[in-house]
Amino acid sequence: MLDLIDAKEFDxxxxxxxxxxxxxxxxxxxxxxxxxxxxxxxxxxxxARIVTNIRAAAIIINTLRGRLVARFYIQYFKPxxxxxxxxxxxxxxxxxxxxxxxxxxxxxA
Length: 109
Hints:
This protein is of the alpha/beta class. The protein has a single domain, classed as Rossmann fold (3-Layer(aba) Sandwich). The chain is 49% helix and 16% strand. The chain has four helices and three strands. The chain has helices at 4-18, 38-47, 64-77, 89-102, and strands at 23-28, 54-60, 83-86. Strands 1-2-3 form a three-stranded parallel beta sheet, sandwiched between helices. Strand 1 (23-28), helix 2 and strand 2 form a beta-alpha-beta unit. Helix 1 runs parallel beside helix 2. The longest helix has 15 residues, at 4-18. It is globular and about 35 Å long. It starts with a helix and ends in a 7-residue tail after the last helix.
């Protein structure tokens, strides 16, 4: 389980890797023990430094229960970037491509 301390470490790594550029990211939650605490979810949806660089986020989930929980959290935490649930990485990448084509890139610091 990913907690708030872990989330802050990931955020620092994301900031370093992105070098101030926009990012599309995929969270693969298909492993049986893949989960985030409420604090980590809240942090990633609005408080993380990388939020201003996120163009879109995809969540990969392979169970009905997982999809229902993810939908609830997306509605509850209301991320500041487009977020969608998919069954596969391929579907997520296709969605990212439609976003790249339909929306101009946002400026990031």
